[in-house]
Write a structure and sequence with these properties.
391 residues; 2 domains; 19 helices; mainly alpha; 61% helix
């Protein structure tokens, strides 16, 4: 019986399978995601075409379709128009049917037209990769069988399941449902550890949503973005050029007033600002809600308390009318909660679309800090003093 060009022991089969799937995830995160969808880096034609060819063999995905669907995900995140939001569709649906959601999204012409611009449109793309997207995976099956014999069918099956499970399931599903958050984005994105090597850095999903056009996805010292490691290697070899990275937060401890520099820094680092704000007032929310529980119907049980705390961290426009009514019931019973919540809404208004000039926004920011420091609420006072130091 033909055993293939390479007669591998069991551990060799495992090593080869992991190696082949790792090349695939590297292609997705470096080529499709960071290069094509977000233009965070430029790739030399050699790695660019290699990844395009490899992804044709191992996924059958078309570059324009993947980029368009992902861009729409960012533009319509956590809304009914999001192609794969577990907050809208449910975690079970996205986790186990992510590939089906992708196939459904790519059939929408408006999505392709609006979000698919700037992707490859050469002869190979039109006549091979897009026209015969399914033939690549058949060719990959033949290659696996020739190289590894009957076990090659198992290797191929794992290759075919790798992206639907890791990217469509874990990243799109768990990455918007469970995990920790470094940045208080408007969406529900989270970071999922410890999947770094298996998912190429894509598990740092909250970091990515905070700074979507950054070529580097890691933010904290303990986070490992192996995709970024490969990009740096390619850059050293002259095969890649990083175009954008997340700005680093800097502070000037000597500042005691707000200026245009403060305003620009606060807007640039707005997700970091709101994360720090949430952490600053967390104990206030807990203490005040505990005081109210005995005589507030809206805080009748632990589930209700958790819901109210969640709403306190959201923009008012994100709540339904019924939810606003329940939250108002609680706020009307606590001046401290009402003050903190109102201050939060006013702070976020600074970086929303406005006709105000920079000078007017600086005045609004400075006024916000003065009111926070005059509120008598220690957490707001401490946060305001730190806010002035953003540089």
């Amino acid at each position: 019986m033909f055993s293939g060009v390479f007669d591998l022991p069991w551990w060799g089969v495992v090593a080869v399978t992991l190696g082949l799937t790792h090349i695939t995830i590297a292609g997705v995160t470096i080529f499709l995601h960071r290069h094509q969808a977000h233009r965070a880096l430029d790739l030399h034609p050699i790695p660019s075409h290699f990844f395009r060819f490899w992804l044709w063999l191992t996924t059958g995905m078309i570059t324009k379709e993947w980029a368009a669907i992902h861009r729409k995900h960012h533009a319509k995140c956590e809304t009914p128009e999001d192609p794969h939001s577990p907050q809208v569709l449910g975690i079970k649906k996205v986790l186990f049917e992510g590939a089906e959601l992708y196939r459904a999204a790519r059939k929408v012409p408006e999505t392709m037209e609006k979000y698919g611009h700037g992707t490859p449109d050469d002869w190979l793309e039109r006549n091979v990769y897009a026209k015969h997207s399914g033939k690549g995976i058949v060719l990959m099956l033949a290659i696996d069988l020739i190289l590894f014999g009957p076990i090659g069918l198992t290797i191929w099956a794992v290759q075919m399941a790798w992206i639907p499970v890791t990217a469509a399931g874990i990243v799109n599903g768990i990455g918007h449902y469970w995990g920790y958050r470094n940045f208080a984005c408007e969406d529900a994105s989270t970071n999922v550890l410890p999947w770094g090597i298996l998912i190429g850095g894509e598990e740092l999903h909250n970091n990515h949503h905070a700074y979507g056009s950054s070529a580097k996805l890691s933010s904290k010292w303990f986070e490992f973005d192996i995709g970024w490691l490969y990009i740096r290697i390619l850059e050293t070899l002259g095969l890649a050029e990083v175009k954008r990275m997340a700005p680093k937060v800097r502070f000037n401890s000597g500042k005691d007033c707000c200026d245009i520099g403060t305003l620009e820094a606060v807007i640039t680092h707005r997700y970091d600002v709101m994360t720090k704000f949430a952490r600053s007032v967390k104990s206030i929310y807990t203490d005040e809600i505990q005081k109210l529980r005995s005589h507030a119907p809206a805080l009748s049980d632990g589930s209700a308390v958790k819901t109210i705390k969640h709403w306190l961290h959201l923009d008012a426009k994100a709540l339904q009318e019924q939810e606003k009514a329940k939250l108002d019931e609680v706020l009307n019973m606590s001046k401290v909660l009402a003050t903190v919540y109102t201050m939060r809404q006013e702070l976020t208004a600074l970086w929303e679309r406005s006709t105000a000039s920079k000078e007017q926004l600086v005045k609004q920011l400075d006024d916000w800090c003065h009111r926070a420091e005059a509120s008598g609420i220690a957490a707001l006072q401490d946060f305001s003093r730190k806010l002035r130091c953003y540089a």
